[in-house]
Amino acid sequence: MNVEVNYMKIPKMILFDYGQTLIAEQKFDGVKGTEPVLQYATRNKYSKGVHIMIKKAENSDLEILAKLAVLMWQNHSVSALIEEFSEIMMNGKSQFFLKFENDVPVGFAQCQLRYDYVEGTRTSPVGYLEGIFVKEGCRNKGYAKELLAECETWAKERGCHEFASDCEIDNMDSFHFHRVMNFTEANRIICFTKTL
Predict the structure, then answer these.
(1) Helix 78-90 to helix 62-72 angle, to the nearest 10 degrees?
(2) pLDDT per residue as tens digits for the range 152-194
(3) What pLDDT score was predicted for residue 52?
(4) Distance separating alpha carbons of residues 101 and 54, to the nearest angstrom
(5) How many CB atoms lie within 10 A of CB 185?
(6) 37 with 25: CB under 8 angstroms?
(7) Degrees (nearest 5) of the Cα angle 80, 85, 90?
(8) Whole-angstrom Cα distance, residue 138 to residue 124?
(9) 3-state SS string over the chain?
(10) Residues 59-116: pLDDT tens digits?
């Protein structure tokens, strides 16, 4: 009597949706089934009980936004940023996104539509990344990439075919972030002002 045995092929990894966080589990045992991956995910220090989300910021989030933004734009005050962000929100051409980890705000991004000429672009309006920030202890988790993706989606939904940004010429962290996020350097300029 011949018995045909079908062995389950063990995948190299499985994407597992745990608490709204997609995790690449490389220790999945295809022979034993899904139970081991459930057990592994609940023991995994990177996934256990972590609730991650991004939301569109509203007026009720102004203080949260300002407290994050002042960590990046240190020459501003929280109160001044609240006032500025409130005005920006009202114009309807901008959007803020907030990143939360376990219900704690850990990052934000600000984008807007620009109708004036944007260096290196050919269309109008252009989606523009005005600012992006993730708290130091929460970096290297892909949060900035996720925030940027939300901004890009927002811009596409408003008819943009291009998305742009800028950074200070000596801000190498920002420069490398933009390169990794597939931005192409368009130009380098020096700006001048004078008092009249």
Answers:
(1) 120
(2) 999 999 999 999 999 998 999 999 999 999 999 999 888 899 9
(3) 80
(4) 9
(5) 10
(6) yes
(7) 135
(8) 35
(9) CCCCCCCCCCCCCEEEEECCEEEEECCCCCCCCCHHHHHHHHHCCCCCCCCEEEEECCHHHHHHHHHHHHHHCCCCCHHHHHHHHHHHHHCCCEEEEEEEECCEEEEEEEEEEECCCCCCCCCCCEEEEEEEEECHHHCCCCHHHHHHHHHHHHHHHCCCCCEECCCCCCCHHHHHHHHHCCCCCCCCCCCCCCCC
(10) 999 999 999 999 999 999 999 999 999 999 999 899 999 999 999 999 999 999 999 9
User: Angle 97-83-100 (CA atoms, 0-180°, nearest 5)?
Assistant: 25
Choose between 31 and 192: higher pLDDT. Answer: 192
Amino acid at 155: A
Length of the chain: 196
Residue with tokens 């996934």: 47
Confidence (pTM):
0.72
